[in-house]
Amino acid sequence: MLRQPPSSAAGLQPLSRECVPRDLGPGDVAHTVLEGPIARPQPTQQAPDSPEPVLSLERAFFEPSARALTLCFPIVYAEMTTRKGGKRPKLDKRHQNTTTTNPKRWEMALKEDWMRGGLADVSPRQAAAVAGEDRGQAPDRHLPDAAFASILPFNSMDCRQEEIVQSLMASYCEVGGINHVDCGALPSKQAIASLCEDLLQVLFPGFYSEDAVSSQDLELMTHELVASIRERLRTEVRRSLRLRDQSGNHHEEAMKLVCDFMVKLPEVRRLLQTDVQAAFEGDPAARSYEEIILAYPGLEAIAVQRTAHLLYTLGVPLIPRMMTEWAHGRTGIDIHPGAQIGSHFFIDHGTGVVIGETCSIGTRVKLYQGVGLVARSLAQGQALAGKKRHPTIEDNVTIYAGATIVGGDTIVGARSTIGANVFLMESVAPDMVYALGDQEHRIRDRKSTPVTKAPKTPEKEAV
Q1: How many Å apart are CA 406 and CA 446, to the nearest integer?
Q2: Quick one: a GO biological-process term for this protein (predicted)?
């Protein structure tokens, strides 16, 4: 029987990419986890009667050079170091003294060896071992089937690399508008996502942190969060300002904008408190404020939009939209940072709600899933940039699921109700109900011919 690598991660120690050990000999087999935190490979002796160890896609056996290759390149790489007569991949002599504390030098050296085809191939038997076929087991499905295609000779994988790279370089020259080179760094999507998460911790202390927060620690925690958010946001704001104007470093302007933003966060908290209250009062299924803050996607989308709206009104480019799109991806609710939203705003269920940039929403407005407050679709859409394009919703309006309200001239009057699935392109006076007419329900045999009737027009009625 072939000795299997340990099934648990016991004994695996955290290891950074800069600290790949090189202390394994040619007779040793190393194992490590290919996904998750990088673990320190531990030497394990091969069974005496085992001419060829068994691989799995979750743990692979490889020597130091191959280990570094696994860290440098996003592919599954398996190299058998103990197969009788097998080749042992080595770095070129001029790279043998390369230290592992410099991953870039490792990457350059390994790329050169890869280009020369100096790394050994994986035999069919080894590939069968990876798939579990030689043991009569089902293939390892921890990684997708496409991973099997990655265990290929590097010579065959690399044969057209130069052609591919040159064709991409030609594309970079010919296809403009989607390249960003020889310019300053753009705001980081990862950094903006992290900032949104920390801002939610500031706005809802104790709700977005894994550990319990005591009143004694609250001030210290807030100090640390505010300082961290301020410095990281300043960096991203400076990058966004440089995108608009590449002259100067914009350090002082970015700092002022960030400070003006941070001092308004208490006002955002006051508005969010009214939003939580509106959700609790408007949804009989809600059992507590805690349930609303932790479980309702609409509140999270509103919270991010209200903070992004502050940056939008301060004139910060790009970042407000990145923030609301982060929330859009998490909640399915798309609220433009430019939208003006009053207090006690409630989005029930939420998925599919779209609120455009120039939309104006009053107080105590309630929306259901799939509602769209949108602009007319025109061929020359940029001609309307900066103009009022989205509807105005006055106070105490309820809009039911699937309704679409279009146009900058459309006003839904106070205390009105818009029924489900309505397509509205005209204003509605206050205290009105705008709904589809009675829809006739028919039950017929599948083989009979349906009767077509003219659709009924929407009905308006006074409340």
Answers
A1: 37
A2: amino acid biosynthetic process
What is the pLDDT, as a whole number, of residue 353? 98
Look at 240-244, 287-291, 327-331, 379-383 and tell me which has the smallest mean pLDDT.
379-383
Residue range 306-331, pLDDT digits in tens = 999 999 999 999 999 999 999 999 99
Other C-beta atoms within 10 Å of 124: how many? Answer: 8
244 Cβ neighbours under 8 A, 6+ residues apart? 317
Please name which of 434, 430, 427, 398 lies closest in space to residue 413, comparing C-alpha atoms. 430
Phi and psi at 355, nearest 5°, equal -125, 120
Do residues 3 and 9 lie in contact, with contact meaning Cβ atoms separated by under 8 Å?
no
Q: What is the pLDDT of residues 406-434, one digit of tens each?
A: 999 999 999 999 999 999 999 999 999 99
- Chain position carrying tokens 């949108």: 374
pTM, whole model, 2 decimals?
Answer: 0.65
What distance in Å separates the CA atoms of residue 334 and residue 230, rounded to the nearest whole number? 26
Interaxial angle between packed helices 319-331 and 215-244, expressed in degrees from 0 to 180 and rounded to the nearest 10: 120
Walk me through the domains of the chain, giving residue ranges and CATH numbers.
28-157 (no CATH), 184-337 (1.10.3130.10), 339-377+387-463 (2.160.10.10)
Distance CA 442, CA 242 (A): 62
